[in-house]
Structure formats: C-alpha cells, structure tokens
Write a structure and sequence with these properties.
The chain has helices at about 1-30, 35-55, 65-95, 110-135. It is mainly α.
C-alpha cells in the first residue's frame, strides 16, 4: 500500500507540470511566450520528472501484483517524457536564435520533430503504465489516470 501511495504522489507531481508544458510550447510557437520563458518552464518539468525517475529504483514494490512491471513502465514513461521535454527545449533555443519566426512551421526544426516522435513514445509507455495502474489504483485509494494526464 505504501508503494502505491508513493507512486500516486509521483503521478500527481508529473500531472502538475503536464499542462504547463503544452502551454509553453503553444506560447512559444504563437509568440505569446518568450523562448527563454518556455525553456524555463520545460526545465521545471524536466527537474520534476528527473526527481521521479531518480526515486523509482529505491521504491520497494515486491508486495504489489505486477509491481516490477509497474515501475518499469513508469521508468520508461519518465525517460521518454524527459527526452521529449529536452527536444522541445532545443527547439525553443533554435526558435529564439532564428530571430523572429512567428508563424513559422515548427516541423521544419529537427528538434521539434524529434520531440513529437519521443512524445508519441512516451504516450505509448503511459498507456502501458495506466493499463496496469488503473485496475489497481482504486483498491489502494489512488486516482486513475489517462495516458495524457501525467
């Protein structure tokens, strides 16, 4: 039960930064958020997710059904999410260095394309995670999640 509470707190932390990421991406693309501000927002998300990733190996899940698989899929989720966040940051740096590219197609930037690709991988990993998490969560008083919420 303690491991589920801990995992639930990790999911809540990740969910808390999720909306800020998309807002920063959309804002930089639409020139309503400066690239440096967007990069700072992404760095906060990276730091949050990295803290979760660093803590996962120390979590004891031997008493949970599918505990090892649960941690493994969440580890992959955090790794992929961090990689996507870093690619979005690199795109924001490119965007800033391009001068005034408001309205430009972000898909022309390789970092943006990489971010979309890795973000898709993260969503796949999140789907695998919630397939294990959601059936167990109510038994332990934890919230169920969709693959787009954390």
């Amino acid at each position: 039960a303690a491991a589920m509470v801990t995992l639930g707190s990790y999911l809540a932390k990740s969910a808390s930064v999720r909306p800020t990421i998309q807002t920063a991406i959309n804002g930089v693309q639409g020139c309503t958020v400066s690239p440096s501000s967007g990069e700072a927002t992404l760095q906060q998300a990276i730091n949050t997710r990295q803290d979760i990733l660093n803590a996962l190996p120390t979590l004891s899940v031997s008493g949970l059904p599918n505990g090892t698989q649960l941690v493994s899929t969440l580890t992959t989720t955090m790794q992929d999410s961090i990689a996507a966040d870093k690619d979005y940051q690199a795109w924001m740096r490119d965007f800033a260095n391009a001068g005034s590219p408001c309205g430009s197609d972000p898909n022309q930037d390789s970092h943006y394309a990489d971010a979309l690709n890795v973000s898709g991988q993260a969503t796949t990993a999140k789907s695998a995670f919630v397939a294990i998490w959601n059936p167990m969560a109510p038994r332990y008083g934890q919230q169920a999640y969709s693959n787009t919420e954390f």
